[in-house]
């Protein structure tokens, strides 16, 4: 009896705990994406491109780390630390395969406000050089990095708290025009901050409202103090960088190895500065002493957390928004999914943990992500390989960067911001698609320039919500079709047993950023169910489509959405008569729906499209320039399907 009881208890115990173990494994895979992709890593196919990408990424990380550390008003060596630890943390917790986390211009600018406010340059004379400090730097430098690390720590804590609160579902409020305008305005701020190095002039730290204009006013007032040597070296560096990078882009398919022009320029400029002693002869500012090694970890000063709350919120929001946009763009380009909430956790930990290693706030950068695209990176292994090379720089090569001129470093940063600055070209697209989006872009950019990136972002979101709230009550509704689905089963002449299905879905709502993701997810779910069951779903016609397409909540696409459709041909007609107004996000999603359906062997047609909607789709990316996509009516779309596919008759017809 005792043995039977023990056996019974053990069986009950296993039944109780087996599901929990499985749940824990699934939770680990969901929260540690490295457990998903690392076991499936293909060494033969991916190692070589990841290695080449890692080498090029390491060059970018080192140069940007040095420059963004100075931009953050701390010693350059802390930028090297900030290029190492966040990249490792994000590779473990992040889902973006082509997202290179590290130092970031926007977050560096924000943290510089706290550093200059709490540890101003005027207090440098009150501290002495300490050879017994952690990395052999003065107490003044250690106080400054303490403030920057505190901003990083508190910003990361805010991001982790947003993950716990599941606020990733609210990211649909961040529309593409707002993100584009904010990042463009912030890039303009970064270029402005580098003007003093490009011109070789000494100027005080200027920030606050309208600080952008005060900087240029100071430059024009002191134009006579510009060093001609620094200006000429800056112009030469910019011309070389732009020319070589354009050539690399033009001939990247013909050449197997891209020329690392940043690395070549750093070596050449440092060697020339050392040989000619430019620091003394011409008065050029150089990077200076770079200590070797990584100091032991130390907690950020907690007594300043209350004083850096504003900057911490700016780092948390601006860094996350910019990074999420890059992760979503990467996922869209390479056909995988990104969890918005998981990105909160990944970037939060990438700020919290590195803050104990004297790191400035981190985020993903557009230039580094574009570099991973161009060099053919496959997975996050490229970022890990770059970390190995950064370690070599920290322990061996760092002191050799002493002679690197600051004007050359500033030139590298300015050219690296090209991807953000050319977003001005989007203005034409927004004007042709939706003039309200154009107005939101311009106003968000102006607020970012006049105040700060976080202020511009907040203004853009509030302005977008207010405009949509004002437009929705004026939206017309249709009572005749009332968002019904109609199914047609059609037999072909060639194969009488094959059923050709035509599904007609009427959209009865404006298509804007609020419901764009939900529209995509619901439509893909309908198609996915059809493919899975391989038969008509009679009960779906009983449901009103407004429960699927009218929701203003955010929806995430399933991973199965990337799976191809069976060979059976399907047809889908979207009746757009209810799309009374739209914005850029809605039109972009409509084009994306067309491309996804095309990849699933589902032919899609649009009916009752307004002239403005057709024009907007052309500017967002014409789905198919050869075959007609939009038709005047549903019957015209049906006639086109039957004539092209030689359909003989309708075997089942549901009345509209």
UniProtKB/TrEMBL annotation:
Sections of the chain in a coiled coil: none
TM regions (residue ranges): 66-93, 145-165, 203-220, 226-245, 257-284, 304-327, 348-367, 379-397, 402-424, 444-469
Catalysis: reaction(s): nitrate(in) = nitrate(out); hydrogencarbonate(in) = hydrogencarbonate(out); iodide(out) = iodide(in); thiocyanate(in) = thiocyanate(out)
Domain of life where this protein originates: Eukaryota
Pfam family for this entry, one: STAS
SUPFAM superfamilies: SpoIIaa-like
Domain annotation STAS: ranges: 492-641
Similarity field: Belongs to the SLC26A/SulP transporter (TC 2.A.53) family.
Protein name from the UniProt record: Anion exchange transporter
Organism the protein comes from: Lynx pardinus
